[in-house]
Write a structure and sequence with these properties.
The chain is an alpha/beta fold. The protein has 3 helices and 20 strands. It has one domain: Hexapeptide repeat proteins (UDP N-Acetylglucosamine Acyltransferase, domain 1), CATH 2.160.10.
């Protein structure tokens, strides 16, 4: 193995540099494929937005987005959902204005009936809506289970698993049980909210609708 690694290292240094320009067509092909794929996702997401139960102005869906029953998803204004979101929306999903969500979101509003007629569960579905308030920031790799309510201004950071209720303006981190790190500065939050100081993409000032 070490001989193979040393040979590969030598080849990268000695053999490939003189002919790297020959690889340019492959770079172009890759670039076209990537950007064409992005265009297809953009158009697909615009179609999904047309099927939502509610889609406020300024909603942005980036990258791959998968949802069951999109007509049961209700999005307020200036909601951003990033790459690789997966939503089971049978029970209803409600997201308030100016809420931004990072990559790899998972939301379930439906669950199996484990107290039913079969083990480990039967075919009965238990539906519980998920409510996410206004001005919420949800970080990467967050999973939210049926019946969860997240209050206005709350923040869920890396890897959080939401099970019950997240209070207003709370900042949390990690897995269940919920770990509340601190609360927002309420005076500052209320001032920014009252004066409509909301961010757009990547935290930059929001463009007017």
């Amino acid at each position: 193995m070490s001989v193979a690694i040393r040979f590969a290292d030598w080849a990268l240094d000695k053999l490939l540099p003189p002919v790297r320009w020959l690889l340019f067509p492959f770079f172009i092909a890759f670039w076209v494929k990537e950007h064409l794929g992005m265009a297809v996702l953009l158009l697909s997401n615009e179609f999904i937005k047309s099927r939502l139960g509610q889609c406020g102005p300024g909603v942005r869906i980036h990258g791959r987005f998968r949802a069951t029953l999109p007509e049961r998803i209700f999005l307020g204004a200036n909601v951003h959902i990033n790459e690789n979101a997966y939503i089971r929306a049978e029970g209803g999903l409600y997201i308030g204005d100016n809420t931004h969500i990072s990559r790899n979101l998972v939301i379930y509003t439906t669950n199996h009936q484990y107290e039913g007629s079969l083990l480990p569960y039967d075919s009965t579905k238990i539906l519980k809506p998920v409510h996410i308030g206004r001005n919420v920031w949800i970080g990467i790799n967050v999973a939210i289970t049926p019946g969860v309510t997240i209050g206005d201004g709350a923040s869920h950071w890396h890897g959080h698993r939401g099970f019950l209720r997240m209070s207003h303006q709370a900042l949390s981190w990690g897995t269940a049980p919920q770990q509340v790190l601190k609360m927002r500065d309420m005076d500052r939050y209320n001032h920014l909210d009252a004066t409509n100081q909301y961010s757009g993409m990547s935290g930059f000032p929001k463009h007017p609708f």
